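Lecture notes, structural biology module. Today: joint structure prediction for complexes of two components.
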Amino acid sequence: MDKLKNMDDMNNKRAVVLFSGGLDSSTVLKIAIDEGFEVIPLTFFYNQRHKTEIGHAKKIVKFFNLKNHVIVSLDFGQIKGSALIDLSMDVPKNRIKENRVRQDLNETGETGNVDDIPVTYVPARNTVFLSYALAVAEVNMAGDIFIGANHIDYSGYPDCRPDYLRAFEKMANLATKASVTGEINFKINAPLLKLTKKDIIIRAFEIGAPLELTHSCYDPVEGLACGVCDSCILRRRGFEEAKIKDPAKYYKG
Amino acid sequence: MDKLKNMDDMNNKRAVVLFSGGLDSSTVLKIAIDEGFEVIPLTFFYNQRHKTEIGHAKKIVKFFNLKNHVIVSLDFGQIKGSALIDLSMDVPKNRIKENRVRQDLNETGETGNVDDIPVTYVPARNTVFLSYALAVAEVNMAGDIFIGANHIDYSGYPDCRPDYLRAFEKMANLATKASVTGEINFKINAPLLKLTKKDIIIRAFEIGAPLELTHSCYDPVEGLACGVCDSCILRRRGFEEAKIKDPAKYYKG
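The predicted structure, tokenised, for the full assembly:
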């Protein structure tokens, strides 16, 4: 009986997963599925330079045979201020040399080097993303929100840090009808937070996340990855270190 | 010299004002202008039932001769769960009897009665609004964000409470490049938080907010206010108690 009850609980628990179609969020999606959540993948179209990732997201949702993919259009048109949405700005290439990014890490993972936040930073992006996730979570009575934030991908992004995520979670539980009435206690899950890209790739490989369907590049050319933006460099180095073949197709190099 | 320097500081300070075209946010807009801020009004189009408020917002921006009105389209289409965006749900009429809503207030203003959050509650709306405001603020190097939240308009909305706003402010200062590098310390200003509707109207009247251009109704008919939704009832009672003539045109009553 207890086992049946637990299975029933397991079947009833829902999670909203921020899901871009990238390597990290695809791994997180699989982790949430494996943990028994009924997942609601949430993908944003914000006229991003790398909007090809949305096609990848749809393929991965199909791969997992998920029925309730939520795709939200975000109007960042008047916000701009980032090379990921402002096409007049250049995406930095070959910015990451050697292991500089990883040197930002410290043992507690509490703080990173904020002196070199790149122009691919989108103002308040994770805050806007998580706020929508909170709305979707509340409407669907989902207590868990998953995000693929981590300290490598962080590479200077303040809204991927543990103290930020904790502050968001605290705010979220004061923000909604479902939380203030005690129906839901929202939890922000960031299972990749303290993993290196190498370790994320090994994890993804082990649990069967569809690496071949994921997209990472900030500045793709006709669907091919550039190979030299921050995101490509981190991905390629991660696969090399994990000794796993990267299935992505690169335009250069 | 000091006076000149102060005037210079005053001229340089910027604020993003969440601005719906309603009574409260119009009052807040005038307060921010009077405090010397270069204001950036931020209005959302989210296919709200009362989208007529956006026309009011534009007229008020013109009235104040402001140049940088930011209007953002929000996609709440797949979120729903509120009578303000889901046209299959009814807006409650004559819900507020006597002074029931005001009885929710306590001396500290820290908590309200959350047992009766109305169906006009939009999931995580202020969190989404404030997140966008944070993005606009960061891009424009504006340290101050103004919101018209108050305990009467609260009428059960959790995201109008002081502890929520404080938690958002804390999160905001961990979320952005501008705050973690120390360039900006974001402040969430809610100057109406502890005012009654009567006191807001008196304040608006005294400082010259254009009450005749504001819109409050949740469920307007051909641009006329219904007179009996929560928002209309609070507005009408406020004007009565303030002994000021309500310039709004009502469809009923």
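Point to remember: Chain B has nine helices and five strands.
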